[in-house]
């Protein structure tokens, strides 16, 4: 076991909450978002990673771990923006009705015979009938979206009538009457779901106020389906229907009138809106000119390109001549460390108007001395995000994302390198030769690009 002179302390805080992803049932998933806060002490300088382990206990037991590495050493106990260093990880799947034990500790681990720095919390996931779980595929198959609308009434001292709406998931049910003990039950077989089923159940005791339990046997969940409950009341007099049936009849009578009223209201609102716009246009003699906001641009470039002589000069050109707000990974190292490179690139891709791939097939000799190209320099040790950005953005283009968001810029005449050949379908500009056309393209109104012009290969 490796002996460390100094090791980091424990976490300042650890929290867990469920988050959802996807909309359709096939890709709807619930994951665990684990967030943690670091302590503001000197031991943070020795922190390299945080390990999170999750143990789940239900009908089956699960165990998984993940190690979250920090991209660079911490130089300060707190971020320059204030607060505490806070990070999060989302990825552990969450199943319904499961107790999870989440433990986390910092790396390097404590030395032998020292107290291990760790923190743990418990999290119990909700059941299938909860708002967040009921759309999960496993819960839907167990009947979470099924509303049986149970009504049960005491017909006389020896019988209870139970009515409910069947489900298309199955046709076999069991209705059971309980009043401290089981006083009656009956199996129901309905061959035309969904429909309103009715069954009269003989009982052996007082049934008013008793509980009704309806157990479905769907082909998707077998004997482990969600059971529904109701309460037995006195049957209404002859000729009087249950509230559910009367509401349904009332709604059927009012529905055409409500539809006509809704259409009339919509037509009236549209007419008032058109008249107001026409009056406003007539009274306004001169249009108002509004200065458009700057274009947000993310510039990505390979590590072999000189930052000071190429990237910085290109950034000045964008700011001074193309009215652009430029985002560079070199300027957001701390933000990347907090969010992670993939999350940072994904966030920037959504926020910016253009993504520019800055390429050059020639590296200037003066970069070696002036720009810190020597071994061990900060630029040499920094993470090269270009391959990650290249593959991430190409993957989006391959899934029908419009090409108008992407541009390629060269400072010298050259064909696209083989490893960047996937960029050949993007608009390319040679600076400073194509500077006017480049600025015009950068500032012009976004137009729909032909769906047939897509990236066909995206890999480095």
UniProtKB/TrEMBL annotation:
Domain named SEFIR: residues: 294-440
Compartments, as annotated in UniProt: Cell membrane; Secreted
GO MF annotation list: interleukin-17 receptor activity
Keyword Cell membrane: yes
Membrane protein topology class: Single-pass type I membrane protein
One Pfam family this sequence matches: SEFIR
One Gene Ontology term, aspect cellular component: extracellular region
Coiled-coil ranges (or none): none
Superkingdom of the source species: Eukaryota
Claim: Oxidoreductase is one of the keywords in the record: no
Membrane-spanning segments: 254-276
UniProt keyword list: Cell membrane, Glycoprotein, Membrane, Receptor, Secreted, Signal, Transmembrane, Transmembrane helix
PANTHER family: INTERLEUKIN-17 RECEPTOR (PTHR15583), INTERLEUKIN-17 RECEPTOR B (PTHR15583:SF11)
Subunit structure: Interacts with DAZAP2. Interacts with TRAF3IP2.
Entry function: Receptor for the pro-inflammatory cytokines IL17B and IL17E. May play a role in controlling the growth and/or differentiation of hematopoietic cells.
Descriptive protein name: Interleukin-17 receptor B
Organism (species): Gulo gulo (Wolverine)
């Amino acid at each position: 076991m490796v002996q460390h002179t100094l090791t980091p302390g424990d976490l300042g805080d650890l929290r867990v909450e469920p988050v959802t992803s996807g909309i359709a049932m096939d890709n709807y998933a619930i994951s665990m978002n684990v967030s943690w806060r670091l302590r503001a002490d000197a031991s943070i300088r020795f922190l390299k990673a945080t390990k999170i382990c999750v143990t789940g206990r239900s009908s089956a037991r699960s165990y998984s771990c993940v190690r979250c590495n920090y991209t660079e050493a911490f130089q300060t106990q707190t971020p320059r923006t204030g607060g505490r260093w806070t990070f999060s990880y989302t990825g552990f799947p969450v199943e319904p009705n499961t107790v999870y034990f989440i433990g986390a500790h910092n790396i390097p681990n404590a030395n032998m015979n020292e107290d291990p720095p760790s923190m743990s919390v418990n999290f119990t996931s909700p059941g299938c009938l909860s708002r967040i779980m009921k759309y999960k595929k496993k819960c839907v198959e167990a009947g979470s979206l099924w509303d049986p609308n149970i009504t049960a009434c005491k017909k006389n001292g020896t019988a209870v009538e139970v009515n409910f709406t069947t489900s298309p998931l199955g046709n076999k049910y069991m209705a059971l009457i309980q009043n401290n003990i089981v006083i009656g039950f009956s199996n129901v077989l309905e061959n035309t779901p969904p429909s309103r089923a009715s069954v009269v159940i003989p009982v052996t005791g007082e049934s008013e106020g008793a509980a009704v339990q309806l157990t479905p046997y769907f082909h998707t969940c077998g004997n482990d389906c969600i059971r529904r409950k109701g309460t037995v009341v006195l049957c209404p007099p002859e000729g009087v229907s249950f509230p559910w049936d009367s509401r349904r009849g009332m709604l059927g009578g009012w529905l055409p009138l409500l539809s006509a009223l809704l259409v009339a209201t919509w037509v009236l609102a549209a007419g008032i809106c058109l008249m107001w716009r026409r009056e406003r246009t007539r009274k306004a003699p001169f249009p108002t000119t509004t200065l458009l906001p700057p274009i947000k641009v993310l510039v990505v470039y390979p590590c072999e390109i000189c930052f000071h002589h190429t990237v910085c000069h290109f950034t000045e050109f964008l700011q001074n001549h193309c009215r652009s707000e430029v985002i560079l990974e070199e300027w957001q190292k701390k933000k990347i460390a907090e969010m992670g490179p993939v999350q940072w690139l994904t966030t920037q891709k959504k926020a910016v108007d253009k993504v520019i791939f800055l390429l050059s097939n020639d590296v200037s000799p003066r970069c070696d001395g002036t720009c810190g190209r020597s071994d061990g320099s900060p630029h040499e040790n920094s993470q090269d995000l270009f391959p990650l950005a290249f593959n991430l953005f190409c993957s989006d283009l391959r899934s029908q994302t419009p090409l108008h968001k992407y541009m390629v810029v060269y400072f010298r005449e050259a064909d696209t390198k083989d490893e960047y050949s996937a960029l050949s379908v993007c608009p390319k500009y040679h600076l400073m030769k194509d500077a006017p056309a480049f600025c015009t393209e950068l500032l012009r109104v976004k137009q729909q690009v032909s769906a047939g012009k897509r990236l066909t290969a995206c890999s480095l």
